[in-house]
Amino acid sequence: MLKLYHQPISFNSRRPWIALLEKGLDFELIEMQLNGDQFQPEFVALNPFHHVPVLVDDDFRVVESLAILDYIEAKYPNPSLLPKEEKALAIVRMVEMVTVNELLPAINPLLRQMIGLDSEPEKIEEAKQKAAVVLNFFEQLLGDRPYFGSEQLTLADIVAGTSILFLPQMGVTFNSKLQSWSDRITQRPSWQTTQPTPKAIAAFKSRIKTLMAKNQAK
């Protein structure tokens, strides 16, 4: 059986979790606390870089969320989460890579603020402006389709959605087209199943603050 090592708060972990649910696959979900368990020999043997997610399929392991998504799609192609037409495929890949390479690094101050860490006002404003550039680009790529590059949910929707849907809570607004897209994907059972609970979010914030306090005391 497939095994997914994950952390519910992690954007990266949530991506393959949603894909596995959308595919209707049987899998074992193994939650990592990231309180030091990622440095235990058993986990280091799976991922020497000490982070989640990790997918284990019998004697084969896959690290890095985008690689895991591709593996799941290639091995279990139905229902498809990846369009075949060249322009649609390019749209999906652009959304994935812009999310990872442009959006997430830019909104780090917003993430810090969300989990209760100090952030400088000017950095917050800069992060919002950079996020707005990405959202405008995403609106163009979405076009008149309900999902990125397709009439059906794609890997791009999973990658972008898990990374940006908290932004309106931080003062970054969606236009009507992206808001409709957001409403569409958040109504999916896979999205609701993987949505972090307030309890999980609070516990994560507490762990982060504790770890930072320990680091500052050293």
What spatial order of strands do you see in the largest sheet? Answer: 2-1-3-4
Strand content: 5-15%
Overall residue-averaged pLDDT value: 92
- The first-to-last residue Cα distance is 42 Å
CATH architecture of the largest domain: Up-down Bundle
The total number of structural domains is 2
Strand count, sense and barrel status of the largest sheet are: 4 strands, mixed
The ordered string of helix (H) and strand (E) elements is EHEHEEHHHHHHHH
Helix content: 55-70%
Kindly state the number of beta strands: 4
- Structural class designation: alpha+beta
Summary of the model, kept short:
Helix content is 57%, strand content 8%. With 218 residues, it is an alpha+beta fold.
Structural topology:
Blueprint (H helix, E strand, L loop, with lengths): L1 E5 L4 H13 L3 E5 L9 H4 L9 E4 L2 E4 L1 H11 L10 H21 L1 H7 L6 H22 L12 H10 L11 H11 L2 H6 L3 H20 L1
Parallel strand pairs: 1-2
Antiparallel strand pairs: 1-3, 3-4
Protein name: glutathione transferase
Keywords: Transferase
Pfam family, one: GST_C
Quickly list its features:
single chain, 218 residues, alpha+beta, Glutaredoxin, Glutathione S-transferase Yfyf (Class Pi), Chain A, domain 2, 4-stranded mixed β-sheet, 10 helices, 4 strands, 57% helix, globular, Glutathione_S-Trfase_N, Glutathione_S-Trfase, glutathione transferase, Thioredoxin-like_sf, EC 2.5.1.18
Structure, described:
With 218 residues, the chain is of the alpha+beta class. The protein has 2 domains: 78 residues, Glutaredoxin, CATH 3.40.30.10; 107 residues, Glutathione S-transferase Yfyf (Class Pi), Chain A, domain 2 (Up-down Bundle). 57% of the residues lie in helices and 8% in strands. The protein contains 10 helices and 4 strands. A 4-stranded mixed β-sheet has the order 2-1-3-4, covered by helices on one side. α1 links the parallel β1 and β2. It is globular and about 45 Å long. The model has no long low-confidence stretch (mean pLDDT 92).
